[in-house]
Protein 1
Amino acid sequence: MKQIREIVESIPIADTHEHLLEEEDRIKASDKAPLNDIGVFFTQYVDSDLVVAGMPPKDLEKVNDPQITSQTKWKLIKPWWEAMRNTAYGMMVRESIRILFDEEDINDGNREKIDEALRKLAKPGYYEQILKQTCNIDHCQVNALDVPFFRETKSPDLLLMDLCTSFLSSDFDRQKVGEFFGRDITCLDDALEAIDKAFSVFGPKAIAVKNQSAYRRRIDYKIRSRKEAEENFKLYLENEKNISREQRKPFEDFLFHYTTDKAVEYHLPVKMHTGFHAGRGVMPLHNVRLNPGDMCELCRAQPEAKFVFMHITYPYQDEAIAVAKHYPNAYIDMCWSWMISPLAAVRFLKECLLSVPANKIFTFGGDVSLVELVPGHIHIARKGICQAITELAGEGWLKRSDIPGILERLLRSNAYELFPVEQRIREGKSEKGK
């Protein structure tokens, strides 16, 4: 186990999924709570476990309120923190605090010390300090949530950006697309031209295409005729405020396949959210349960596209293994899974490695907006990866001589093979040097 851990720690991990904000935006906001006090650790994912444990949502609003003092926030958090600190979300917080500030946990005695350390941390260069030096991350692939399509980053050699196509296709947003396109969208051809423009402008810079529509609909994208899409899009334009999700489906299906064709043209893999939903109290598990079957249909309909199905489709990870084993164009990303259920992720990695070619698995993505949470998450992931590989070796399923090569592939080289990582990092360094 020690030798395996040393190998895992030594390999710079390709982080294939984050939502990180720009460093300069974080620094500008560092004088505003919750970004400059312990609230930073309770604003994403962890907040869900707090409310699920019983915290009143109104109290959580106070935790995110810049006007509320850190002391008051801690009083609100503390009772529920004791109830949920055992979860992987809670472990991510505790490990991040340990790694960054050499504190085992947040408590009454060290809260102010952690607040002060957070404020001192947020200065130019701290992303690279945390990601490269502390976490040994090779690069981060970022799906920016603060812009509709693509974020021009000041760190193009570290943060490799996804092109988000949701608002262009499966969550079509007339206003956002029109603002980007430079005029109102009045027909299907306008929407297609906007997609062409988005790929022309951002495609050569993007690391992948990202679609998050599984939060709002099934990912059952049927092949539609242009005539059907045009008629349906006209209905949408005439009834934009009142048309239902199901009524929009024909033209959004058509646009999804159009964006997928563009992704193939630009040699960009298509990342798809699958499985568990962030948040609390809203997940339609009956839709999530249908993800694997819909994934199969996508792979069949778009054989030239490379689909990266994210989050191991938890809690239907067994079906995700079956999809990746059967379809040449299906890949599985373990991003976020270590935080949702680390033991399920361990089991998944063991079973996947014995079923699926090893080049089709990506083992880490922090999936967070706040960089201070990455150290704890990657610690959990490395621990789980070590456990999975150690158990496979101990049970006789994996030769010890194969372990270094497999780990290099899982942690880093798979990403370089599927995504245009080397090219984007080279271009990013050149851009920063100008």
Protein 2
Amino acid sequence: MRVLSVLVATLALGFALSGCGAGDAVDEGPFGYDASQPLAFADAGVVDPNYPLAVHDVSYAVGEGRVEAFLIVPPGGGPWPAAIYVHGSGSDRLSMLGPATWLAARGAVTLAISAPSGSAGAAGGAGVDRLVEHRQLEVGDVVAVRRAIDLLRERDDVDPERIAYIGWSAGARTGSILAGVEPRLHSLVLIAPGAAPVSEFVDEAAPEDREAVRDLMSAIDPLSYIAQADAERLFIQEGENDGVIPRTAIDALIGAAPDGTQVRWYEADHALGPQAYEEHLDWLQERLGITGPPVQGAQTGPTG
């Protein structure tokens, strides 16, 4: 069964209808991790041998758990630039498989991961306990991406100096943090991101909890982390008609981004649609220095 060709075509139809240098990982702060831990990389094989890109069903270790991913490799030996794709809330690696194949078809190794938070279930606590759980999930997602960078940098077919990140919705929120804490990422595309200021969480907390809430949320505040980023590495895409992320949260994140950050607005909803994907694919191709011909028979974007 031609799983990949069917999936990519379906994704494109859905769009049509809906209208820094590399450094060593820092093992400190809330997003620190043990970089010496074995990745225990596992490859269950190619999911569709008929597709012109090799799409591997893989997983790797993060702490005591494992992260599932699709690793997409173009034909040839590289070294290729690479990119990590992270989905929105309530989804998994499958939702970003189509976009990951589009960049791979242009000449990159891509990795679409299932963020650990996606399988964590609904938070069970209340008040401060709920925020503690939220912080743990946020940290887990960021560390999962940092381990994905470790994985890609170990590969002989990847250029370790050219690794990008693409995140949509909740994945874009994760990317906002990574923009400030992960210098090994060459470029970041944040699709429909947003984040409320810490002060909003504090104001909503009971008076006796406000100090604890401020400490908890400040440690994972996307607004403070994106402010530390290099504007040249960032591309933010937003929909004028986004009905999922509050406009105040969108404006807060864009306002926190460093001066010179490229921001593009679209007459679109939260999904944004094909124009946004074509534009950030072109931006990544230029940023990452992808100059070779596309992979014959593989789709290079939502419209072709």
Protein 3
Amino acid sequence: MKNWLSTRKIILVLCILVIALAIQFTTPPTYDPPQFPNGKKFAFAIVDDTDGATVENIKPVYEYLEELGIRCTKTVWLLPTNDSTHWPNRGETMQDSAYREFVLGLQNKGFEIGLHGVRGGHSERGEVISGLESFRELFGQYPRIHINHSLNKDNLYWGGSKLGVTPFRLMYGLMSDTPSSYGQDPASEHFWGDIAKEHVSYVVNFSFHDINILKINPAIPYHDERKPYVNYWFHSADGGFVDSFNDLISEENVDKLESQGGVCFIYTHLSSGFARDGKVNPEFKKRIAYLASKDGWFTSASEILDYLREHRNRDDDISFRERIYIELRWLIEKALYGST
């Protein structure tokens, strides 16, 4: 009888411990809304990946954004793809003269140009270095933002390498066949982590289904000592295609972002259905116009990240609890929605 009671006590203690840990690591962090420049009520940046982009399919979208006064971050490829069989690798690059002229025009108008790897497809170290030098020559500086691309082996801490907790990596392996990356591995021919650390300020890692990224992690941008080749990480809201983008910027969500004094970095592909036959998607036009009518700070991702980093009262390193919460939440969302 006494042994049974002892066993019950042990089980009870373990249950309480599990519940306590669950509460500790699944409770969203609290945050104090930042004071944005010029009294703006929230901050919003589009981060546009270049997959499938051509002058024809993105120019109308950028013209409409410019008309609304929204400047954003657009990524580019410097080199042509070496694997066009993988559809996300297709799209124009800075080797295409008309596309190059268009992108340089965007930069002159105040849009930020970032890197989506040097090409759609795997690149070895020498190719990455050559591509980065081409970027600097074209745009006058190295890219401040890098966004990993699809299955590229030269990605930084991608696939299972995103996750720092071994059980989480095992869980990820059951949900995804995205391979790990080698851009951070000094033994690999795809290594360029040291170059990234020298020149690139920010890299995005997890995408979430919430418009307010500060609500998920008020520490952005943050440094993770377990991933030393990235200076600062940040997260994005997952608006990868026109329908998911439109869902995220519903009037209800925009009002929520404003009332919470939040920050949104919305990840998308403006080449994916935002314009057809030269006409911008009408629902996107309606919703982005409502967003633009608000008193928000609409600018590049790097400018917002710089501001957040310079106006906070904490150090740059992420805590263990914060890392567990972010990774666990992302895994749950990936299981439910297929987050990137």
